[in-house]
Amino acid sequence: MANSSEHERVLELQDHIIGTQNVADFLERLSIMAAEALSRETSSNIECGVTLKRRRRTFTVAGSSPRAVHLDEIEQSIGEGPCIDALRIKEPVLLGNVETEPRWPAYREALAAEGCRSTLGVPLEIGEDAAAALNFFATSTGIFTPGIIQEACEFADIAEGAVKLAVRLGSAQSLAEDLTAAMESRTSIDLACGVIMGQNRCSQAEAMAILTKVSSNRNQKLRVVAEEMLSNLAGGEVRTHFDPA
């Protein structure tokens, strides 16, 4: 692969990170790009699914088409196949022919029923506690030659940096959402404490102790108790709002 081509792909992946709303959208676009890249090289219709591994579990997160997602999910539901093995050994794993391959009998039978004849799993290293893999599917055999496997690996090498960045941005987004939710929860508790202080003419510490005791007696979270109390006072659902700006 030429250096100019690699540079173009890196820029394209970075553009997609900026242009997508979340990590799932980016990974879907990544799977489409991967499928298109190998389809051009093989002059065949190659489809691609993206598998994510976290905390020893693997699951399908994106695909170049609904069929690609379905084919990838088959492997995850059965629990064996080249993509799962690629994640485990951190090397590409090929299923060249569903009729002659001795490994993964249940998976091969399911693929054959779907008209898929060969697959290729290529791992991506994206962090200490997570990994991903590109799962390529072809409707005929002899597609994933050594040259095509090398092409898939080079694409994966280029994609790794973009995927790491996307996942990092996604984690930051989740953290911000969690922080906002926590602050909204804190607002409910503070409002409830204010009501208790007004009703009982007590200090904030004493109001918090009352709220905590009710929470313990009911075996409910402090936030839930606070929101229920505010809701009862208002005669309906109370929503707190926190503007992070």
How does this structure look, described?
With 245 residues, the chain is α+β, with helices and mostly antiparallel strands. It folds into 2 domains: 172 residues, Transcription factor LuxR-like, autoinducer-binding domain (Beta-Lactamase), CATH 3.30.450; 59 residues, Winged helix-like DNA-binding domain superfamily/Winged helix DNA-binding domain (Arc Repressor Mutant, subunit A, Orthogonal Bundle), CATH 1.10.10.10. Helices cover 61% and strands 14% of the residues. The protein has a 5-stranded antiparallel β-sheet with strand order 2-1-5-4-3. Helix 2 packs antiparallel against helix 6 and helix 7 crosses helix 8. It starts with a helix and ends in an 11-residue tail after the last helix.
